[in-house]
Design brief:
This protein is an alpha/beta fold and 310 residues long. It has one domain: Arginase, Chain A (3-Layer(aba) Sandwich). It is 39% helix and 13% strand. The protein contains 10 helices and 8 strands. An 8-stranded parallel β-sheet has the order 2-1-3-8-7-4-5-6, sandwiched between helices. Strand 7, helix 9 and strand 8 form a beta-alpha-beta unit. The mean pLDDT is 97. The protein binds zinc ion (ZN). The site of zinc ion has 6 residues, from loops.
């Protein structure tokens, strides 16, 4: 039997109400899944895993309990909902809890298979007692704390390659020596306040593929050598792409593929399991995001023997 690459996905990812013209690329998750299904070779090498919803009590170990309760009850003040950027709805909560459950399932699948990918996730702007930038609860920190419950996992490295700084993740991990944070981002972009990660690489506007990889690759190698993590959580945001509507970098699709391959190859070589999330990517023409996110699946298939009959 061939081993298959686990892809965690639920139809609810593209199914919650948003006002017309909202920036959030709601349909890209569904489109990405359909793209994978339409590619015979890719489809034959992957296995879709449907996550269960997270029990919200789990969130109170990383977020302020009053914040969790207010969001669940729909009683968060309007100004705080505006900071998150979504109108409150039961469906939004269901979607959010399912995607958090999905990131946890991705951790479990990665422990078993070496690499697993979540076809959403990367809520790195969620802080202890507030959400922002389309992030309600921080799935990356939740995943890191989950990974640390496994035997032999003493240290987790979160590699955040979304174009926006991982401010919530950095703040939530600041006092935890078992969670190491690396953020490579556009320096002049959201969020304006950037609490320090363990490693921050702030890039100038217009950084191209060559320069991006020149900054990123040696730093990842160094982080892996210095911190010797037992598990990696990888946010493979594609909003570093030159045509992204919320990013100011000039990385091309091949540059994204090379970045993804580098992360997964390094971890594979060191035998470190990786749970990856697809992260950000913003285009009005959402279908144009699909091949960029599909790079991550191609990269995972290129560095492993998933799908190969042995
Ligand atoms: Zn982003």
């Amino acid at each position: 039997m061939a081993e298959l690459l686990p892809l965690v996905y639920h139809p609810i990812y593209s199914d919650f109400p948003l006002p017309d013209g909202h920036r959030y690329p709601l349909q890209k998750y569904r489109m990405l899944k359909e793209h994978i299904e339409s590619d015979v070779q890719m489809h034959s090498a992957v296995a879709f895993v449907e996550p269960a919803s997270l029990n919200p009590s789990r969130l109170k170990s990383i977020h302020r309990p009053e914040y969790v309760d207010a969001l669940l009850a729909g009683s968060l003040p309007l100004a705080k909902m505006r900071r998150i950027g979504f109108p409150w709805s039961e469906a939004l909560l269901r979607r959010s809890l399912t995607s958090l459950g999905g990131t946890l399932d991705t951790v479990q699948q990665a422990m078993e298979c070496g690499i697993a990918i979540h076809l959403t996730g990367g809520y790195h702007h969620a802080h202890y007692d507030f959400g922002s930038g389309f992030c309600l609860f921080n799935d990356l920190i939740l995943a890191a704390t989950e990974a640390l419950t496994y035997p032999g996992i003493e240290r987790v490295l979160i590699v955040d390659c979304d174009v926006h700084h991982g401010d919530g993740t950095a703040a939530l991990a600041v006092d935890n020596s078992q969670i190491i944070t690396l953020s490579i981002h556009s320096e002049k972009n959201f969020p304006s306040r950037k609490p320090p990660s363990d490693i921050d690489i702030g890039l100038p506007n217009g950084t191209d593929s060559e320069s991006y990889l020149h900054h990123f690759c040696p730093m990842l190698t160094l982080a892996l050598a210095q911190y010797q993590p037992d598990f990696v959580i990888y946010d493979a945001g594609v909003d570093i792409h030159t045509d992204d509507e919320l990013g100011y970098l000039n990385v091309c699709s091949d540059g994204i593929l090379e970045r993804d391959r580098f992360v997964l190859t390094q971890c594979r070589t060191l035998d470190i399991p990786v749970a990856a999330v697809i992260g950000g990517g913003y285009r009005t023409e959402q279908e144009k995001l699909v091949p960029l996110h599909a790079n991550l699946i191609s990269a995972a298939l290129s560095v492993t023997a998933f799908g190969a009959n042995q």
